[in-house]
């Protein structure tokens, strides 16, 4: 049989493993796989992207467009018309110090509580303003979008120094919750909830930009909203400069050592113990994204990057240092040099991690538990029970099982997670409950586990029989750690692909070529 013939091709030193690693690896993988079936998201929408309010923005002339809606809103506010219910209806999402108003309801059965956005009707909002003796002015409202099906227009408002009682009386079940907490609390498999998160992120970014662009940077005169708060302009008639909402591009990269099948992950100071993630940094004016990837990697770790491959991007309105919205642009960056020199002002540590270590970190992290903890916290806050609003405790919830994984990587709400998992499991669709991006870094090996689970029962039995006969006859010598395979995991993959030969001839040719080239390069090195 082919696999046995193939083993005989290998030099005798390589046929020496004493401890066969496959069953253990397989069981952890099977576990990852079986956990996954209930939850997965389409990762074309990262957290904060896929905003349903932005997908088909109404054009000028449409009665629900920003300018038309603003006119209608103005009329409604100045006429003090509380009794009629004219079309369209206006829904407003209040924010206090960057936190959206939210509510929470019990999940079905054993599932965690579900948070929702605390939209208020215009009349309710006006009532709340009147009770506090505050003036609701149309300039405070920022247009988000409209829905022709609901005949509704959606707005956001910053009520930070106004209406103090809003959200403090928990009888209504409403409270202001940190966006980061909501982010962790969102069930990433539920596209509607992810849409709500994206709406809150978009609104927060717009309001924060409004707050710090109150004055014109040219002449120092006050600015006024335009296009229902989606733009601003200087109120000085001889200046009239337009001001646009700010987005700051940040590159985030997984630096990959192709030859040794490792990835570079870094730990930032003051963060959670064992939390390792991708390198990242702001782009400089006059710099391309690729150049920023190379410069940041060099500055922070002393590693030179060659090829840079785009992966995906994510809006990030929850940066701690009051930047309204970063745009995280994700890349795979292939290292040209391997020696790490950590910039201690930026990083606490940076290390190369094997694919297997990274896979373990992803497989054993308790992301679902983290989501539940945060969702329960939101529930408690909305009931008025939880006053401890520490951010650190939100982030700490994703800690992994220390026995099984030496490091923790950020959860599925972060693009870093998706960069890391699409490298580590470049060929698997779902890991630990999260769908992986199918993009793979060049040079990754072909994984056939997923196919195994899809095979018919007869084929599965045949593969298992072959597999058992293989280990019982040949186990005595083959050192995965001898270096021929980048990891025991890849050895397991290799075996499986061998078995796949009986189904797919092409695959085995690819594997054979790969293996031979690895062997040749290892021999040359020695
Ligand atoms: C609407 O009410 C405000 C106070 O709540 C008042 O100042 C304003 O004059 C009223 N507008 C009209 C048109 O009645
Ligand atoms: C607006 O900016 C001021 C001054 O920079 C700050 O004190 C305040 O907290 C900000 N408000 C919000 C809602 O971010
Ligand atoms: C946003 O507005 C467009 C145009 O009216 C509409 O098609 C879309 O459904 C709206 N989104 C939501 C969530 O209302
Ligand atoms: C208005 O803008 C002009 C031109 O930029 C400037 O010279 C003038 O000082 C500004 N006026 C005020 C009140 O800021
Ligand atoms: C508040 O949060 C901190 C960590 O951020 C935690 O150590 C502390 O126990 C919490 N307090 C309460 C009363 O939950």
TrEMBL record:
Organism this protein belongs to: Glycine max (Soybean)
Signal peptide start and end residues: 1-16
Presence of keyword Hydrolase: yes
Cofactor dependency: Mg(2+)
UniProt xrefs under SUPFAM superfamilies: Nudix
NCBIfam families: PRK00241.1 (NF001299)
Enzyme class at the top of the EC tree: hydrolase
A GO term for molecular function: metal ion binding
Domain Nudix hydrolase: 245-375
Cell cycle found in the keyword field: no
Pfam family, one: NUDIX
Keywords recorded for this protein, A-Z: Hydrolase, Magnesium, Metal-binding, NAD, Signal
Domain of life: Eukaryota
Record-listed E.C. numbers: 3.6.1.22
Identification of the protein by name: NAD(+) diphosphatase
